[in-house]
Amino acid sequence: MNGKARAARIDFSLQFEGNLVLFHIHTHAARGWVEENVMEPQYFGNALVVEGRFFMGLLEGMRSAGLNEPDARERITNSNSK
Question: pTM here?
């Protein structure tokens, strides 16, 4: 997959609910990353449920693996248009 197609894909999105963060998983790539990197994942429907204290580490790991969420996609799109 080329860089532009990769940037256009949204792998996961976030929903903040008090002290919990829901990682809504949208692609097989994101689901695979979670299965390989999260010990005993807890789901609510299709969303990975994470305590707020673990949120940033998980987000950074997913981004480092090249997974995209809507805010990251917007920044990539805007920086390429300049």
Answer: 0.76
